[in-house]
Amino acid sequence: MIDLVCKNFNKVIFLYNGSNPMQLGFLNDHPQIKAAIWDPAPGNVGFDSLGKILNGEINPSGKTTDTFLYDLTKSPWWNNSGATKYTNMQDMALKLPVAKGVYFNLAPSFTNYVEDIYVGYKYYETAAAEGTIDYGKTVQYPFGYGLSYTDFTQKMSPVTKNGKNLEFTVTVKNTGSVAGKDAVEVYDNPPYTNGGIEKASANLVTMKKTNLLKPGESQNVKISFPLEQLASYDYLNTKGYVLDQGDYQLSVNSDSHNILDKQTYTVANKVTFDKSNPRSTDKQAATNKISEIAGDVTYLSRKDHFANYAAATAAPASDVMPDKYKNQYHVNKNFDRNTYINKNDKMPTTGAKNNIKLKDLRGVDPNDPRWDKLLDEMSVDDMSKLSSMAGFQTPAVDSIGKVATTDADGPAAINNNFTKQGSLGFPIAVVLANTWSPTLARQYGEMMGQMAREMGIVGWYAPAMNTHRTAVGGRNFEYYSEDGELAGTIAPPTPWPGPSRRASTPTSSTSRSTMPTP
User: Fold this and answer.
1) Domain spans of the chain?
2) Nearest to residue 320, comparing CAs of 110, 503, 140?
3) What are the tens digits of pLDDT across the range 412-428?
4) How far out from the chain centre does Cα 96 lie?
5) Positive/negative CA dihedral, 332, 335, 336, 340
6) Rounded Cα–Cα distance for residues 425 and 444 (Å)
7) Helices in 378-456 by DSSP H: which ranges?
8) What angle do CA 29, 35, 40 make, to 5 degrees?
9) I want to staple 466 with a disulfide (CB 3.0 to 4.6 A). Which of 38, 316, 372, 479 is the partner?
10) Residue ranges in 368-482 assigned as alpha helix (H)
11) What dihedral angle (degrees, nearest 10) is formed by the CA atoms of 293, 298, 299, 304?
12) Is 501's pLDDT higher than 60?
């Protein structure tokens, strides 16, 4: 199709309307293609803006949320992108009906996440720094890349420490002839010891979006983030975060690869953040909880210039589930319901008459003892229904005065699966992250909340926080980015602060994600 169009037209604009990064090397082979735009699922009215961009009425300022490669087969995840079925567990396969005449064939399977921390740009930038890849032949469009109808410069002031935070100012100037916006992308390159804690040479620390700047206009963007955010997690020895001694390069980039300006901040003494000294931003000190699931997989390491790349990124060496796990694998047809019964367990109180209703505890602290008294009023049947009858709704619980609620499917609109009513369709999560604008993300959350209220919707099966680990993820459109900092900034989670003793009583069912904080 592209060959045909380019054969008949001298000026071609290529539009890619997909949420996953794809190989676009052919753009370099067709001089007729003068421009390329990534416009994944922009919603009901998004293409109106696309027309204005093409016509020059709007100056685009989006940035990529993922790395675009020339050859996906050369990525670290290629041999471990999908699920591998266990050959010794086929008798445990399930045929799950999902619609009339439609079934999901579910067989026990696994995926090895072999990349360790080197997901997306964190591998390609680090491998380039180590001299193990030819960056220009590997990466076509870096993470955080985007063009504009104008040009900008970005200059950093010296980095200073204010309390626990590092601070500096980035002066962004529009040096072109058209008004436009720019994203300030702040990265750090930490000191690395060969064979030590795994660290990427480029890590997005924080980001901000400028105002609309007229030609010649400047804006001072203030940057502030906790010094402890530069710490790296050591899962092998410390089992906590470590801020190593040494020089940390802080930079503002046009994308993950191209530095516009940089400064060095030196940490004089090593700091370990563990249970005795948690990071101030951690509600609970991080430590290894489930080390056993690491298994016997060889994980990618920066040691000796990624010397173990071939071994780490190979296809799984075994497709047999070890006996100790096979004996614990339960499905309905082989599950012994006495497996987890402990004779010493004490049955919680049920059916109590404490005269407390759910509405009485609106806004009450989760540790308030009245939550326990509320739960004591529920019967076993109440708790069973609340936990098992929660698909696109939550049932009423008369004993505590809880009304039934309706949850809507998403992730870019509010769709009621019962009434078939639907809201305006918004751009998908990838497009929202492409804006690199927390301000727009906040407006999006406010509008979703308002529409949900108007439609009588209490819960939303919303965009999720999964990482774009591979370019072939079937649900990548529901997720934001290959980078956790960008995803977390655009869609901060807002957990429900209710009790979690034995049966929670939320006002909506558990969803893939909660609405962005309004």
Assistant:
1) 150-288, 358-490
2) 110
3) 999 888 888 899 999 99
4) 29
5) negative
6) 11
7) 380-388, 429-434, 438-455
8) 105
9) 479
10) 370-376, 380-388, 429-434, 438-455
11) 150
12) no
Beta partners for residue 47, in sequence order: none
Q: Judging by DSSP bridges, how do beta strands 405-408 and 459-460 pair with one another?
A: parallel
How far apart are alpha carbons 275 and 285 in whole angstroms? 5
Query: What pLDDT was estimated at residue 364?
Result: 96
Q: Is 462 within 8 Å of 511 (Cβ atoms)?
A: yes
Q: Does residue 9 have a pLDDT over 70? A: yes
Distance of CA 499 to the CA centre of its chain: 26
Instruction: With CA atoms as reference, report the closest residue to 417 among 455, 444, 446, 386.
Output: 455
CB atoms within 10 A of CB 468: 24
Q: How many helices (DSSP H) and strands (DSSP E) are in the chain?
A: 12, 22
On whether the CB atoms of residues 447 and 518 are closer than 8 A, the answer is no
Task: Show Cβ contacts of residue 31 under 8 Å, excluding neighbours closer than 6 positions.
Answer: none
Confidence of residue 515 (pLDDT cuts 50, 70, 90): very low
On average, the pLDDT of the chain sits at: 92
Q: Under a CB-based contact definition with an 8 Å cutoff, are residues 442 and 516 in contact?
A: yes
Where residue 476 falls (left for φ over 0; alpha for ψ -120 to 50; beta otherwise) is: alpha
Answer for the pair 145, 57: CB distance below 8 angstroms, yes or no. no
The CATH-assigned architecture of domain 150-288 is Sandwich (2.60)
CA–centroid distance for 377 within its chain: 39
CATH number of 358-490: 3.20.20.300
Name the band, by pLDDT with cuts 50, 70 and 90, for residue 509: very low
Say yes or no to pLDDT of 516 above 50. Answer: no
pLDDT tens digits, one per residue of 27-57: 999 999 999 999 999 999 999 999 999 999 9
For residues 447-455, give the mean pLDDT: 91
- What's the Cα-to-Cα distance from 80 to each of 113, 155, 502, rounded to whole Å? 7, 41, 37
Nearest CA among 154, 147, 146, 158 for reference residue 171: 154
Which residue is associated with the tokens 């970005």? 154
**What was the pLDDT predicted at 492?**
62
What is the spatial distance between Cα 80 and Cα 110, in angstroms, rounded to a whole number? 10
Cβ atoms of 433 and 486 closer than 8 Å: yes
Percent with pLDDT over 90 in the chain: 79
Q: Residue 129 carries which DSSP code?
A: H
Neighbours of 274 (CB within 10 A): 16
Q: Which amino acid is at 477?
A: F
Three-class DSSP labels, 270-301: CEEECCCCCCCCCCCCCCCCCHHHHCCCCCCC
> d(Cα 171, Cα 19) in Å, to the nearest integer?
33
